[in-house]
Amino acid sequence: MKLDPGERFPDLDLPDHTGRPRRLSELAGGDPVALLFSRGWWCPKEQRHLREVTRLQDEFEVAYARIVVVSIDAPQVQSAFRAGLGARFTFLSDGDRRWLARLDLLEDTDMLHRPYRPTAFTLHPDLTIHAVYDGYWYWGRPTPEDLRRDMRAISRTVRKDFER
Amino acid sequence: MTELPIGAAHLSYDGRALHGATGPGRCFMIDARCLRGVALPGAYAHVCALPGESAVLEFDQPEVQQVRRDALAWWIPLLGDALVCITTLAIDESRYGGAITVTREPVAWSEDPFARIFPGTVVRTDAFCEVAPPAGPVVERYAGVAWPGGRF
Predict the structure, then answer these.
(1) A51 in helix, strand or coil?
(2) Which of A131, A137, A148, B85 could form a disulfide bond with B34, CB atoms 3.0-4.6 angstroms apart?
């Protein structure tokens, strides 16, 4: 599956951190999205990066933009991890690795957990991919400034009154 | 009665029961999705509002922002499958009059963060339908519709 800028990201259907079935398009709800595929709660790099993202939610909450995290953790694990982070955004659970295989995002150097390869996408409200970040190496992940820049660029194209 | 933005619906509350748009009591605007689907009979609505017109705050006041953050952070996860829908109660595009959390069964109402603003009353209702909970982290209103409803 091609996951390049300009392509439409698939409309993931997965349970959220409470176990409720959700779709990515519904979570987007007409807003730009930062979609983060994460190894899981056990990884120190994920813990560090998601703490950074959680700090950024104070801007997203007033800026009409969404954050969605996908991992192979079970919903109850995600719910505890989310609470520990103080996150107010949605986690999606792909415990069966159903989408992991279709998206070709398996981290093939971790045969113990078989997690997602850390990858971030910034998406338009219609799920068109704006930018892709391969976060296998920590420095490949989007910084808060990268996410701000992408959200600004997407908002400029989808909010007709962004600039006068 | 306030003119409705797209995505909003009217509902009235007299302190003991919920009624339709023209019913007795104080009229509020809610997220219309809560009334748009197949209604769930015998649900429990925790109405954190007062019938008196003076019970009103700005949506932008810090305490009203914080209860929406708390709803996203732990109130909605705490409710789990019991949650049917949730809506704030808007007086108009900028003023907050309360909130309603609707569940299939009695839950820990004493934990409801919205009851910190206006006290809650449990009301049985056949009016509400299931709506997916807000994804977060957005706590702002969309186009003047009661949070979490509306979109641009």
Answers:
(1) helix
(2) B85
How many CB pairs below 8 Å do chains A and B form together?
A: 69
Write down the ipTM of this complex: 0.91
> Model-level pTM?
0.94
Q: List CB contacts (< 8 A) between B72 and chain A.
A: 88-89
- The residue among A61, A91, A156 with the most chain B CBs within 10 A of its CB, best to mutate, is A61
SS3 B24: coil
Buried b (16+ CB within 10 A) or exposed e, A23-48: ebbebbbebbbbbbbbbbbebeebbe
Tokens of A115: 């997690």
Determine, for residues B137 and A19 on separate chains, whether the beta-carbon distance falls below 8 Å: no
Closest-CA residue in chain A for B134? Answer: A27
Q: Find out whether B135 and B84 touch, Cβ atoms under 8 Å.
A: no
In tens, the pLDDT along A80-127 reads 999 999 999 999 999 999 999 999 999 989 989 999 999 999 999 999
Residue B1: the pLDDT is: 59
Give, in order, the Cα–Cα distances in Å from B122 to each of B16, B105, B115: 8, 11, 11
Extract the residue ranges of chain B whose pLDDT is less than 50.
none
Query: What token pair was written down for B51?
Result: 């019938």
Which of chain B's residues have a Cβ under 8 Å away from the Cβ of A154? Answer: none
Half-sphere exposure in the Cβ direction for B53 (13 Å, CA):
1
